[in-house]
Structure formats: structure tokens, C-alpha cells
Amino acid sequence: MIDQTPAATLVLMGDNLVIEQINIKMLEFIGRSDKIIGQPLIAVLPELEGQYVWEQVKKVYHEGIAFDQNEVLVPHNRTGTIKNYYYNLAYRPLIENGKITGMIQVAIDVTEQVEGRKQLEESERRFREMLLQAPVAATLFQGRDLIIEIANELTLKYWGKDASIIGKSVAEAAPELEDQQVIALLKDRYEKGGTVSFSEAPITFIENGVSKDGYYSFSIKALYGNDGEVESLLSIGVDVSEQVEARKKLEESENHFRILSETLEQQVNKRTKELQRSNEDLQQFAHVASHDLKEPIRKIKTFIGRLEQEFDGKLSDTGTRYIERIHVATAGMFNMIDGVLAYSTTNASTHKIESVNLNEVIKNIETDLELALQETGGTIMHSDLPTLEGALVLLYQLFYNLINNSIKFAKEGIPPQITITSTNIFEHDESFSKIILADNGIGFEPEHANRIFETFSRLNSKDSYEGTGLGLSLCKKIVERHGGSIIADGSSDKGAAFTIILPLQQKGTSV
């Protein structure tokens, strides 16, 4: 009878809990053949001794109390080594003539769901932390009522509010904004979608009953759900009040003191350039919000898709809603998480110096790009890379961007092969590592070797190759912050090679 049950089922009999019946599904779970029939379960899986699940087995047999629990951790040997598995378990005693003679066990393997959920929770935590630590005012609004879901410290500082506004609508948290332009912009983005940016917008906040006027440059980006409808809004802004006030004072001074016109003009130009750089950085932040770190989210989406196929029609309505919520969350995170990370790491004022093993960095990148490598058949060959001083997060971003580029610009039908080698050199009384990353991709014309490092520069059609044109410019910025250099060499259809020279030791404690 149990052979026909769709769930893994096992019947144990006697004080020694001997396996009397077991179906194929349960044999697959424990990684054994039907030769184990007639053996005590603990003899087949001795690693269960002392585990929570084994105590429940004995309790059901000795006390006759049924046991039902979901997502129970059971480390055991299924494939030759002990690994962690999660099961939904149901145990029932078998009673004959008023006496417990055995028990029946039913198990459903939910390891993929549990681990997928944990990965999603970790990704959400990392995204939230990155947004909270962003060097600009970052605010996430949910729904048509513009409920404040995330507001980092700079947002609270600009608004003159505390963390109690989180979970409230904008109208409740800051009613003084209701008749101002920013609210109209937020509502308009929710209705129309897309992105809008404004420079030096005047906004008045009320802090402790006192009006506080200021000027802010900001972007508002609509985030979409799986149904294609706007689900939330991400606002990124900077306070440019000091720059605006300074420029206004300079303009007034110029009108009153013509004799100082040349000096004042230079200062105004300087202030204007600072504002332009601030706005350009803000635009880069919004663009990079959909760049490199998509692989972990792709994995989550892939595994969720597999779960949907595996348990099609078997999930409860609640389970189906959970899956839908995961899809919605990953869709939003897919478009934002990498940009937040890339911008915050490359534009932060300082990064602590630490010892960085580049072999470990490349291994971690291989893991993050696992799906892309599998899909393209790509390989990364490296060995004996140096350990040097630098900012781990920036060096990771450097090599991630270069390797991701090699995969993205592979020749059609030819698996990408990426080779990374290094040698130590000594120049100007300082030791450096010369690292060469080469691939067999589509390459580029030699005359474009310098242009590819320019911001938003693209050598290929964006219809053929996705990207923002920021990846290599960020690489150049990271290398230069470490006191190094990067050059590119390549030929059309013959691959590309990047030569990175980095000092083995940094002169300060931060970069």
C-alpha cells in the first residue's frame, strides 16, 4: 500500500524500530536500497542519534503521541556525506490490541524551499543594509498611499523627523509636503511609471514646529511588480542648499561689486561645476541601480521557478501567495540592489585597508556568476594570484565587472574562456602586482582602447548587449583609488586583455 503513496513513507516495528516497509520515495530520501528492510532505522542512519528528530521518533513509539512539524532540520547521509536537509514530517503510532507495536512516518523534502527562502531573506537584508548606508538620502515608498518602508539616516536628517515615520504615509509623516511639488511628482510617477529627476528643487520641512527651507536634487524611480504595474517608488536625493545659497550670494555680490567680477565669476563656475558633479553622481547612482549583482537574484528566481514546477497544483493558497510575494520582491531587488552597492562602495569617502586574497575574490565571483557561466559554458582559469592590501568590496567589484564583461561579450556559440595571471614587478622603490585578465570574446578595435573607460561609453549596440556603460569606468576609478593603473588591449573578434597594476601595499590606512 505504501508503495502507491506519493509521499515518502516508512513503517517501523518493534522496540528496535525495525524497518518493515518503505517506499521508493523514502529510499531516495535516505539514499539506500530496499536491502535495509529488516534493519533498525538507527543502524541505517546512525547519525540520527542525539538529534531532535530521533527523540521525536522514540517519543511517538513509547508515548503514542502523534508528531507533526514542518521544516525540521535533519542532518544525514544521503549521498555519501552528511548534509543538512529540511522535511515536513508526520509520525503516527501503530496500535494493535491497545498496545503500540510500531509507527508510520511520512516525510516531504522541503530543503530547496527553505534554503531558497533563507537566501532571499539574506538578499533582502543585504539590500536594506546597503540602502540604509547609502551616502545619499534614500527612501522607499510602497503603494498608492506612499507608505514609507525605508528611510535612511540622511532622509530623516533632511526631513527633520525620526524613525517613527517608517510605516506611515507621507501625508501622515510630513503633512507640510502635501501642497508642495515633490508630492505631485511622487504621485505622478506612481501613475505613469518611469524615472524623473530634478535639480535644486525648493522644499520646506517642519522640524519640531519650525519651518526649514532647503534645496534638493533628487531622482524618483518607479519599481514594478510582476503584473507590470507600479508597486513602489525609490527616491534618491542630496541636499544642495549650501551650494545654491552660496551661488546666490556670489551672484548678488557680482551685481554689487563689478570690480570683483572676474574673481566672482571663477567662484561661481567652480560652484556650478560642483553642482554638476553632484548631479552627475546622482544620475550614475540611478543608472547603476540595475547593473551587476543580478546573479543571486537570478538564482532565487530560478529556484522559485523550479519549486513552482515541482509542486504545481500541490501548494496551498498561502504557499502560492508566498511564491508570488517572492517573485515581486526579487523583481524589485533585481533592478536596484547592484546599483546601490556599486555606487555606495565606489563613491564612499574612505574604505578601510585590509589584506585581500585575490584567489578568494575570484572564487566568490565564480559562485555569484555560476548561472551565467553554466548558461554560456564559460570557464575562469587562475592560480597563484597575489594577496595585496586594498578595499575588499572595491577589488571584488573591479574583477566582477571585468569577468562579467568577458561573459557578456563572448562570441556567439563559443564558450567564454577567461584567463587571469599575475607577476610581481618593482618600480619607483615600490612593489606592484601586474595582473592580466584575457578572454576569447568579440574584442574591440585598438583605437577604442581608451574610450571604453569613459562613463556611459558603449562600443556595441545596446540592443545586442545589455549594460549601462558604467562598468569599465568604475573599474578605472577603483584601480586609481588604489594607486594603480589599468589599460585595455584587443582586436576585433580576437578577444580582449586588461592589464591591471596594483601596489602590494597601500601607503595609508584607507582608500
Structure summary, number of beta strands: 17
Query: Could you list the spans in which at least 5 consecutive residues all have pLDDT below 50?
Result: none
Biggest sheet, spatial arrangement of strands: 2-1-5-4-3
| Helix coverage percent | 40-55%
User: What is the helix tally?
Assistant: 15
What value does the Rg take, in angstroms? 30 Å
Strand content: 25-35%
Shape: globular
Largest sheet, in brief, is: 5 strands, antiparallel
Whole-number average pLDDT? 86
The helix/strand class is: alpha+beta
Distance between the termini: 68 Å
Short summary:
With 511 residues, the protein is of the alpha+beta class. The protein has helices spanning 24-30, 41-44, 52-63, 111-132, 153-159, 170-173, 181-192, 241-256, 261-288, 295-310, 317-347, 358-368, 370-376, 392-408, 471-481, and strands at 8-13, 18-22, 67-77, 82-96, 99-109, 137-142, 147-151, 195-207, 210-224, 230-239, 354-357, 379-382, 387-390, 417-427, 430-439, 485-490, 496-503.
Task: Give an account of the 3D structure.
With 511 residues, the chain is α+β, with helices and mostly antiparallel strands. 40% of the residues lie in helices and 28% in strands. Strands 2-1-5-4-3 form a five-stranded antiparallel β-sheet, with helices on both faces. A five-stranded antiparallel β-sheet has the order 7-6-10-9-8, with helices on both faces. A five-stranded mixed β-sheet has the order 12-14-15-17-16, covered by helices on one side. A hairpin with a 4-residue loop joins β1 and β2. α4 packs parallel to α11, α8 packs antiparallel against α9 and α12 crosses α14. The longest helix has 31 residues. The protein is globular and about 110 Å long. The mean pLDDT is 86.
